[in-house]
Amino acid sequence: MNLAIMASIVKVLHIPRITKYGYCPVYQVVRNHWNKDYKPGPYPVTQKERDAAAKKYGLLPAEYEPYPDDGLGHGDYPKLPAISGDDKDPYYPWDFPEHKRNFNEPIHVHADMYGEDRYNVSFKPRFSRLYMWTSFLGVVGGFFAIYFFMEDKKMFRPV
């Protein structure tokens, strides 16, 4: 019954006529904004190239600093400060509030690592590393000591 209803809906809508090219996958391929459009350009060498790259990313030439040309492929992408999602204002009227970012705002190269549900750059742990290691080794050492000293004293029900 459900298949008959779906077939009649498709027949009535004439899905191939809705898109310009006949079917949706071709429409998806032909439209603008491919991934190649977001690929960074070559590393800027001259001041004119640096100014053009700063304008491309919506930054002032004074605040634009590219990543060093060390072969990682960052090209002219700006070296932005690492700010986690937890550090951004939750009450600011973001264009994309789920990611806390605005339209046309350049994102960090490692933006996939700095989300709200991931690594926090400015996280301050409650305890020092020395305290954590001392606690860990104390608990593990205590269990090992109990096991070592009680190994020859087996407990069982004398039946």
TrEMBL record:
<feature type="transmembrane region" description="Helical">
    <location>
        <begin position="130"/>
        <end position="150"/>
    </location>
</feature>
<keyword id="KW-0812">Transmembrane</keyword>
<protein>
    <recommendedName>
        <fullName>NADH dehydrogenase [ubiquinone] 1 beta subcomplex subunit 8, mitochondrial</fullName>
    </recommendedName>
</protein>
<dbReference type="InterPro" id="IPR008699">
    <property type="entry name" value="NDUFB8"/>
</dbReference>
<dbReference type="Pfam" id="PF05821">
    <property type="entry name" value="NDUF_B8"/>
</dbReference>
<keyword id="KW-1133">Transmembrane helix</keyword>
<keyword id="KW-0472">Membrane</keyword>
